[in-house]
Design a protein that fits this description.
The chain is built from 3 helices and 4 strands. By secondary structure, it is of the alpha+beta class. It has 2 domains: 51 residues, no CATH class; 89 residues, Alpha-D-Glucose-1,6-Bisphosphate, Chain A, domain 4 (2-Layer Sandwich), CATH 3.30.530.20. Strands 1-2-3-4 form a 4-stranded antiparallel sheet, covered by helices on one side. Strand 3 and strand 4 form a beta hairpin.
Length: 143
């Protein structure tokens, strides 16, 4: 089924517009066209559930690397996570015989507060495993 088409509100600033277009472009360059097209709908669905996530893009190297920092498993809306350390998420692509190897690494959990560290690691490990399976299934469906 094609992704739902959802109107996207205009970005608040030129910098936000530029960043959105750059991210969308890199997703397209990675041949994840459906993901790029679905991004507005995913963001709208998260907003409808009052879910927020703030990430800072660290590096984008077309067809090789995308990385960002964020507050992992920051799901309790009553908690201010802004003073906590961030983790670094890296999506690395490497050409291998017969295809492309995707490696997803999230680092920095050791710096998180002890009371959140284990659960954040466990939940994100599970979440990234699911996302890698989703990507694999999507690419298999596209082949």
């Amino acid at each position: 089924m094609p992704p739902a088409k959802t109107p996207v509100p205009a970005p608040a600033t030129p910098a936000q517009a530029s960043l959105y277009q750059q991210l969308r472009s890199h997703l397209a360059e990675l041949k994840l066209h459906d993901a790029a097209a679905a991004l507005p709908a995913v963001l709208d669905a998260a907003a409808a559930e009052h879910l927020t996530m703030t990430a800072t893009i660290q590096r984008m190297e077309p067809e090789r690397l995308f990385s960002f920092t964020w507050h992992p498993y920051a799901i309790d809306q009553s908690v201010d996570y802004s003073s906590e350390p961030l983790t670094l998420v890296e999506f690395m692509l490497e050409a291998i015989p017969g295809g492309t190897l995707l490696t997803v690494v999230e680092s920095g959990f050791a710096a998180l507060p002890a009371h959140r560290r284990d659960e954040a690691f466990r939940m994100n490990d599970r979440g990234w495993s699911i996302q890698v399976q989703n990507i694999s299934q999507h690419l298999g469906d596209a082949a």
